[in-house]
Amino acid sequence: MSLTNQDIVDLISFRRELHRFPEISNEEEATAKRVTNFLGETSPSMVLTGLGGHGVAMVYDGAEPGPTVLFRSELDALPIEELPDIPHRSSVPGKSHMCGHDGHTTILAALARQFGRRPPMRGRVVLMFQPAEETGDGAAGVVADPRYEQIRPDYAFSLHNLPGTPLGHVRLKPGVVNCASRGMRIVLDGKTAHSSMPETGTSPMLAVSRLMPALAKLGGGSFQDDDFAMVTVTHASMGEPVFGVAPGQATILATLRTRLDERMADLCASAETLVREAAEKDGLRHTIDYHEIFVASLNAPEAVEHLRTALEAEGISHDEEELPMRASEDFGLFGHTSKSAMFFLGAGVDSPSLHNPDYDFPDHLIAVGSRIFMRTARNLLG
Ligand SMILES: [Zn+2]
Ligand SMILES: [Zn+2]
Q1: Residue 84 pLDDT greater than 80, yes or no
Q2: pLDDT digits (tens, 9 = 90+) for 357-377
Q3: Whose C-alpha in 29, 113, 302, 382 is 20 to 30 A from the C-alpha of 20?
């Protein structure tokens, strides 16, 4: 039994409700409640709330033993002011669902309705509504939660909508699909001085001016190659915006990006050495810390085959183009505890890009995405 016309109407209205009331990473309390309320009538066998923050897991058990299959969506929106040209525009100033996580969550809601009517024959389905994807905290929080043991999957699947690709067309491939990335924050500490006597202080000025291009130059290699690395300096500040004081402190932020986690470890070590040498040369103290850490997302070949079988059965066009992506995705962490795969679902060639202020998840994809997941689940669990 698939989705009814009434289901589609209800699901579109649920998606637009999520869109009107966005919450950013780690604040998704009301969104989690909307999910549990909307899905309450589907009689899940178990509901876990507060997973890794505001995460919700809905479990549908089969009558016979079998594998656990997890489907993941994200709850969080972004700190972006939406452009005011749609009826279901965000009602929260400065926040909006500009990554389509409202749509991904609705696709899982579509699965819940169908498993509510007919549970899997064997094993069990876990619908994982994960918090804080955009900051990279969410998957880590869920996996680190002691209750994750209760839902630890054998297979994990996820999707992300993909603007610039024909509507409903799928991109899928084994191996790396999203890069590893992390934010590096560097603080250089010296000593302020009167600007007429800079020689009595210790300014970070020269170190900052040397470090910025040196960090960027650590990147290199073709993106098609596992050796690929990229460093993007995203921010630099020094001293205060005044004329009377020579600066005593500076901060540099840079994003490090690689295809593989092993390469990331090398890149961090090289960047740390550069910073240490630059600081020592000018008698500065330095501290380095890391933020928004994403591991690489690797698709397991066996999990990819299950998705491909479902795509073929559903007659949905697919290829391996445009993968991997330079952007990061914290779903990669689920791959450390299961055979996992993520695919990308075309949001239309004319769609605004993700994180643009005029993006809106296409409602047409709710049915397409849920058909792919549903077929995958039924093939595995009956
Ligand atoms: Zn995003
Ligand atoms: Zn996203």
Answers
A1: no
A2: 999 999 999 999 999 999 999
A3: 113
| Cα 63 to middle of ligand 1, angstroms | 37
Measured between alpha carbons, how far is 118 from 370 in angstroms, rounded to an integer? 15
100 CA to middle of ligand 2, Å? 6
Residues 305-361 pLDDT 10s: 999 999 999 999 999 998 999 989 999 999 998 999 999 999 999 999 999 999 999
* CATH of region 180-294: 3.30.70.360
Task: Give the residue extent of every domain in the chain.
Answer: 5-178+296-381, 180-294
Architecture per CATH, domain 5-178+296-381, reads as 3-Layer(aba) Sandwich (3.40)
Cα gap 319→171, rounded to integer Å: 5
Ligand 2 center–CA 290 separation, angstroms = 21
**Percent of residues in the chain assigned helix, strand, coil, to nearest 5:** 35, 30, 35
Question: What are the CA-CA distances from residue 43 to residues 14, 37, 119, 124, 208 (Å)?
Answer: 18, 11, 10, 14, 58
CA 192 to chain centre: 41
Q: Could you tell me how many residues make up the chain?
A: 382
Question: Is the predicted pLDDT of residue 150 greater than 70, yes or no?
Answer: yes
Q: How far is the CA of 362 from the centre of ligand 1 (A)?
A: 16
Ligand 1 centre to CA of 307 (Å) is: 23
Ligand number, closest to the Cα atom of 158: 2
Phi-psi region of 175 (alpha: psi -120 to 50; beta: other; left: phi over 0): left
Reply yes or no on whether the pLDDT at 278 is more than 70: yes
Q: How far is the CA of 354 from the centre of ligand 1 (A)?
A: 6
Beta pairing, strands 155-162 & 64-74: parallel
pTM above 0.85, yes or no: yes
| Residue 216 to residues 220, 232, 265, 270, 292, Cα–Cα distance (Å) | 9, 6, 16, 12, 19
